Amino acid sequence: MPVTFSIAFVAGVTPTKWTRIWADRFPDRELEVFRTDPGEQIEVLRDGRANVSLVRLPIDREGLGAITLYSEIPVVVAAKDHAIAAVAENDTVSLALLADDHLLQDPDTVPEWRDVSSEVRDGTRRALPNLRDLDEVMEQIAAGVGIAILPHSLARLHSRKDVISRPVDGVAETQIALAWPADEKTENVEEFIGIVRGRSAASSRSATVVVRGEPVKKEKATAKAKAAAKLVREEAARKKPAQAKKKPGVITGRVRSSGGPKKKRRS
């Protein structure tokens, strides 16, 4: 029975381009892909539900290996009649414009906003309602209750017609990373790391094999191809019929014009 390779991904990440490459390269290796909630993006690694997880940083890295893949710009999401509507879609919103708003998130998750917030500074910030997920947050935003500052991919995933978003200046970008249990870096994990890093199918990872107790560097696929091509050329040269000997007295090739008779060459 084939072993299933499991890939988890947090909301907002689209792993399709990598899973398609995997399916093309390893059609005989069964693949499972599933989405996680933010609170379990690394728990799925610790309890064995996933071999790798596409996560949104920061995470607790204890016992995990991880590589950063790309960054996400932050955007502010607000009701359609909010002041940010006056800002062009491709322009950024300053934090100063959002200082008097009510953030429908824990202020500590957006420390840049927390440090300029009027309600935090004055102690007038009211408790957050019990919001189960981002869809409910978006409902509150549409009703004009407050704003949210999110990675662009999440804002796009939960977008709706009665809210708008703009890039926000002065807030750190979030990062997407690939994580795996550090003590379980299997061949499949190595292969998937190569895929997300853009390694082509033709290139081979440097690996070590053991021959009679001696470690030997594994020959790269490109070197094998060159050696095989050389053998083909040599074999073709051996099979090629010998050229007929030139007849004496017959001159081939270019003939140099000369006014006098040519001297015979000594053989």
Automatic annotation (TrEMBL):
- Its name, as the record gives it, is LysR substrate-binding domain-containing protein
Q: Where is this region: Disordered?
A: 232-267
Record family assignment: Belongs to the LysR transcriptional regulatory family.
Q: Where is the composition biased (Basic residues)?
A: 239-248
* Annotated transmembrane regions: none
Cross-referenced InterPro entries:
LysR_subst-bd
Domain LysR substrate-binding, first and last residues per copy: 20-198
Classification via Pfam families: LysR_substrate
Query: What are the alphabetically sorted keywords of the record?
Result: DNA-binding, Transcription, Transcription regulation
